Amino acid sequence: MTILSVRGVSKRFGGLQAVDDLSFDVGRGSIKALIGPNGAGKTTLFNLISGFLKPDRGEIVFGGTAVQDMPSYQVSSRGMVRTFQHIRLFPKMTVLENIMVGRHVHSRAGFLAGMLNLPFTWKEERRIREKGMEILELLGIAAHAQAEAVSLAYGQQRVVEIGRALACEPQLLLLDEPAAGLNMRETSDMGGLIAKIRDMGVTVLLVEHDMSLVMKISDEVVVLSYGQKIAEDRPLAIQKNREVIRVYLGDDQ
Amino acid sequence: MARRYSMVVAFAALIVAIQLATRFTDSSYHLTQLTMTAYYSLLIVGLCMLIGYAGQISIGHAGFFAIGGYVSAFLTTHNLAPRRGGGFVSLLSKSGALVARPDAFGGDLLHVHPWLACAAAILLTVVIAYVVGGPVLKLKGHYLAMATLGFGIIVYRMALGTEFLGAADGISDVPGFPLLSGLVVTGNSSLRVSNYYLAWGLVILGMVLLLNLIHSRVGRALEAVHGAEDAAGAMGIPTARYKLNTFVLSAVFASLAGVLLTHYNGGIGPSEASVMKSVRYVAIVAIGGMANLWGSLMMSLVLNYLSLRGYFGTFDDTVFGIILLLIMLFAPDGLLRRHILSDLKGLVSPRSAGEEAP
Amino acid sequence: MAGVTYGTIYAIVAIGFNIIYNATGIINFAQGEFVMLGGMTAVTLNRFLPLPLAILSAVVVTSIVGAIIEIVFIRWLRKPSVLRMVIITIGISILIRETALHIWGESVRALPYFTGSSVTSIQLAGVYISPQVLWVVGVGALAVAGLTAFFNLTMLGRQMRACSASRDAARLCGINAGNMVTLSFVLSAAIGAIGGCVVCPITYVQYDSGTPLAIKGFTVAILGGLGNSTAAVGAGMILGILESFSIWVLPTAYKEAISIAILLVILFVKPSGLFGSAEAARLKEF
User: Fold this and answer.
1) Rounded to whole angstroms, how far apart are CA atoms B196 and B175?
2) Nearest CB partner across the interface for B217, out of A73, A93, A104
3) Which of A61, A237, B226, C17 could form a cystine bridge with A5, CB 3.0-4.6 A?
4) What's domain A1-79+170-253's superfamily in CATH?
5) Which tens digit of pLDDT belongs to each residue from B235-271?
6) Any domain includes C286
7) Comparing C-alpha atoms, which of A126, C253, C10 is closest to residue B159?
8) Do B221 and A104 touch (CB under 8 A)?
């Protein structure tokens, strides 16, 4: 079953056609990867899907609803949550607090309830905190709960960001270069984490440059070049695809 | 939560201690400036919420103070007696919305009841804040600063240039603001003590509401917006709406402060909307630590009091300008930073122990 | 006619904004104070010096003040946020204004008319105008021409443009970026002072003349597109004329409020101004 459907999406920036009539589907419960050389339009596509940019043309259908015109916070509340290529944790908050922000869409205390410190908020806050700790334990970083989030090692910060996204209980998780800046062991751990997330029932769409990671965990791979899709297939087939090889390695005689 | 409220209690104790001190040193006249300081502090803590927690600068908040003060002043001094016979006026009169009193010259004055005037002032403030705030908060960086500055100047110019608002002389002969059971907000010296506690009581109430907000789900969301707006949106937080609500909230605090201080002083003038006042408020929030509610409150207490007592002389405006400049140059996060303990804090103000852990 | 006069001075302030903005990405809120300082200093110096010398000295003094400001307050900052810079320049403008207040008091001063007096008028195309207006427009035009020549034809000017396009690249070419920034402040101050002197006979000058000018200058700069000095001239005219016509429609007291309302409208609707592009409007890095 399809959870996300990108249909004929295009986006232009001045003279540059960043995304050109792109279409693909993401099957529920799978791990799909977007790869391509630098400048292929992967991040732009991510921004389009997650509501940070509006496409010039085309549709983005998530869970049966067209979301291309929705602002990012609406897209997230519908169950499609993203992480960022350059880690964007909340700087003055602890690891646990960062995760707790992810629970925002599953809680309801507003301005008035907050100011008046109404009793129902006490229970809600406690539950938010508990759920946050649960996620930290799942990710194996519960020991750092009270540390200032940006003081953690880079690899751990990535994990925190993913944890924050998981706190939203997404149906589809968009990971923007999760292995960027990670060493080999951390990348391997990341692969394990992503697989674990998929096993929890969350569909994953990731943008990634690290080929070993992509080939190892993805069910399907979409290859972009200059904003266009040039291949969409299973990892092994992609590796043998002539067009893909040409795009990455150039025209070798 | 206990720590949060124990700080409130400690502050309340401080307020009582100050009053008793003035009583024993026979210097009760200080209470007047201290009461005025309280009302300015109400504006300050609301502004701190906006700048420090929601991360939105406003160099025009004196404008909201003035809107509150002027609307209330106008409605409680504009004489409706000549139109007594008219339909609308007699309807108001019958529903108890009007008050009759002798004016400063002994004539007959029929005006709107202070409660209704206050409600009108706050309502108008909310409307203006929503209308102006919407587009303004979409701006970033220096555009936002200039827009808020511009807003403040427009209010100032309108106050200064409008005849029925008293032009350069402002509005005077504003009556006291009656509360329940005989309490009145007024500058009348025989009611000094009760007014002092009324004012600071209101500030403490405001602090409690804001502290609660900071430690709530919305407070966390606001901090997220301030820290990384894109990421906050990605977490499902409606960033624009939250910023706007905080803006309106801080405007209401400012406006209420304006209403009550106007009744306390018995009048208001265009200088209350001036740029220098807005700069002053930002300077106090800045030196208090931007995202430090208690810091801003303590700094407001000290600095506003000194200013009102005339300690800064002709350099009054200059002092705040310099404070703002120095803070921005050397300590842009403010002196009393939230997560960093420093000896300076002890020097500047013994009570400001900074924000408690969540 | 008043519209043209005021329009020119607004344009001059806007150009001052643009020079510093182009070189540094900062909006220098103290720009208006340079104009005020130019006028006030010239008036004081005019007591001992003949008019041309007084004006020249005033421009030099103000330029020095501009350099001092940059060196003392700006130079040593490490990657400050745009907002922090705005507030710092606001603080600087307050400092200058209050100092002016304590030096010169609240009195209103004026320079004598450069040629003739306040009642002289010459006929131009059927309209009677004061010769001072010609001075204003003439000096304004000269300033724009001079700056354009400077930026396009001289080595120093080209270096400054290189700096504004890409600071790091400029550095790699051996250009001292820090000095370029100082130079931009000096130029801005100078042009502000010149403008201040030339309108002073008509508009008078007071310790607090600076702030309203800064706001209107900023409005004009935005209207023409931040950083675009040629457009600033046109935008200045538009604002000046709009302002002078607004008197017919609304009470004089609201004249200030009108220009600010225009500023707000521009910021809300098209912050890139009439001639700028959305890309250029994105805040420059310091």
Assistant:
1) 17
2) A104
3) A61
4) P-loop containing nucleotide triphosphate hydrolases (3.40.50.300)
5) 999 999 999 999 999 999 999 999 999 999 999 999 9
6) no
7) C253
8) yes
